[in-house]
Design goal:
Blueprint: E1 10-18, H1 24-32, E2 50-56, E3 59-65, H2 75-90, E4 93-99, H3 109-116, E5 122-127, H4 134-144, E6 147-148, H5 157-167, H6 185-200, E7 210-217, E8 224-232, H7 235-242, H8 247-264, E9 268-276, H9 284-289
Parallel strand pairs: 1-3, 1-4, 4-5, 5-6, 8-9
Antiparallel strand pairs: 2-3, 7-8
Length: 293
């Protein structure tokens, strides 16, 4: 069904905000029905605004999965914080996510600052409600007037979709109804490689890495060719990413290729390289090159 066939369309931008590791990416994937945002156990996996589109009947919600809210330290985190502010400024609906399993289950100071002057529709969702006792969830819900969900299990996600649709402003669709993402394929390829880096490497090293897809060739009679470069800040980090006799890089590549093929629904040949770019997180030029600016 095209936009011209919709009699009373509603559409709007929805910014998903919350502290690191609260489940924002998992929630957006659940709402859209596609795995667009990478998900790892480490906080601050999302570095930029990932856009996902949910179209249902006469409603279209365009989601921004934003980086986790924290006190910025360094140029990269300053850019990430600015992306959160931009998303909030441009949103028609704000979806604030709180972690029910966190010892501090309330809205933190930064979220309160954002919500203080917010005049447009607001939804507060309590995620990971399946991990704690019902009485605790009810206490949180009663205190901050929220809806309890489990993004991972899909519990009450449909009810949340309905709340979002009810709060969208009237207006034509921004995108075709069958479109779920705006970013090009090579963006998601780079993100899937980065996801494997976060899953395979130690606690701090992944934060010093960036992935750039430098070549993406669709080939008619053979596998698509993808060449991606993993950038690190120090030679010692390069050695860790490559591993003994290339074992770690091979493992990252193998697992990333499986995910990329599932995402693209076609076979690919993935070639990974590792290069050193000193202090790239502090340099505006490098942040722009890697798509974070």
């Amino acid at each position: 069904m095209g936009d011209e066939a919709i009699r009373n369309p509603k559409s709007g931008y929805v910014a998903i905000i919350g502290k690191p590791n609260v489940g924002k990416s998992t929630l957006m994937n659940a709402l859209v029905g596609e795995r667009l945002s990478i998900v790892t156990p480490k906080p601050q996996t999302t570095r930029g605004r990932v856009l996902g589109i949910m179209s249902s009947g006469e409603c279209q919600a365009v989601f921004w999965d934003t980086p986790g809210m924290l006190e910025p330290k360094g140029r990269l985190q300053e850019v990430m914080t600015r992306q959160i502010r931009d998303s909030v400024r441009d949103a028609d609906v704000l979806l604030a996510l709180v972690d029910a399993s966190s010892p501090k289950d309330d809205l933190d100071e930064r979220m309160r600052e954002i919500l203080h002057d917010w005049q447009r529709p607001l939804i507060v969702a309590i995620n990971k409600s399946d991990l704690v006792e019902t009485a605790r969830v009810e206490k949180i819900v009663g205190r901050i007037r929220a809806v309890a969900i489990s993004a991972l299990r899909g519990t009450h996600v449909d009810a949340l979709k309905t709340l979002i649709e009810q709060r969208l402003p009237e207006g034509p669709f921004f995108y075709p109804p069958d479109m779920v993402a705006e970013q090009p394929e090579r963006f998601f390829v780079g993100e899937l490689v980065r996801e494997e880096i976060f899953l395979k490497l130690g606690q701090e090293l992944p934060y010093a890495t960036a992935v750039k897809v430098e070549e993406f060739k669709e080939r008619k009679d053979e596998k698509d060719y993808i060449r991606a470069v993993i950038y690190v800040e120090r030679p010692s980090q390069k050695g860790i990413v490559i591993g003994a006799k290339g074992a770690m890089l091979k493992q990252i590549g193998q697992h990333a290729r499986v995910k990329i093929e599932a995402f693209l629904d076609r076979p690919v040949y993935l070639e990974l390289w590792v290069k050193v770019r000193p202090k790239w997180r502090k340099r505006e030029r490098d942040l722009k090159e890697f798509g974070y600016w």
